Amino acid sequence: MGMGRRERDRQDVLFVTAQQLPKSQGHAFYKRLNRLLSEAGFDREVEKLCEPYYQPTGTRGRPSVPPGVYFRMLMVGYFEGIGSQRGIAWRCADSLSLREFLGVPLTEATPDHSTLSRVRDRLPLEVHQEVFRLVLQLAAQQGLLKGKTVAVDSTTLEADAAMKSPPSADAAPGLRRGGRGLEGVRHWLDEEGRSDRKRRRAERRRGPPLR
Q: Where are the residues of the annotated region Disordered (predicted)?
C-alpha cells in the first residue's frame, strides 16, 4: 500500500451528488436528546412560546431562524461549556453531528453569531428559561443526566454534574454549579450575553477592517 499525501494535485469538483456529501454517525447523546425532543413536540412548543415576539406568519421578508434551531444551538453551548455566540456558531458549523442535531443540511449554512444575537435580543429571559426547563426535565426523566439533583420549578430531579457520554470534558457547566438547574441556566445565559456584548463593543471601537 502506497503512502497517501495530504498535499497533492486535485481537480476542482464541478458538482457533487447527495450521496457524495459527507455523513456522520452522529453523537449518541445528541441523537437521543433529539429523539426525546421530537417525541415531546419540542419544536411546536417553542414556536408557540416565541410566536408573540415575531410578526404574523406570511409577513413579507425573510423568515427568521426557526426557534427550535436557535435553542438547540444554545443547548450545545450550555452542555459543552461554550461561553460565546461566536464559539457556538463555529462549533455547530464545524460539526456534522451537530448539523444533524440542528436539522441543517450540508447544502445550507448554519446560523452565524450575529443571527444568534438578534434572536437572543428579541426573546426575553423568561422564554429562554422555560425552554431550558423543558429540556432539563426531559433529559433528567429519561436518564440522560445522572447523579446529583436539578431543581426544575418545584420539582427536584435526579441529574448529574455532567451528561452521560458527554461530547466534551467541559460538558454541562450549569449542572456542575451545585445542581442549580434553572439558576445555572440563568447564570450561563448572563455570562454568555456579557461575553458577546463585550466583544461587540471592542469591534465597534476598532472600526471597520481596512480594505
A: 161-211
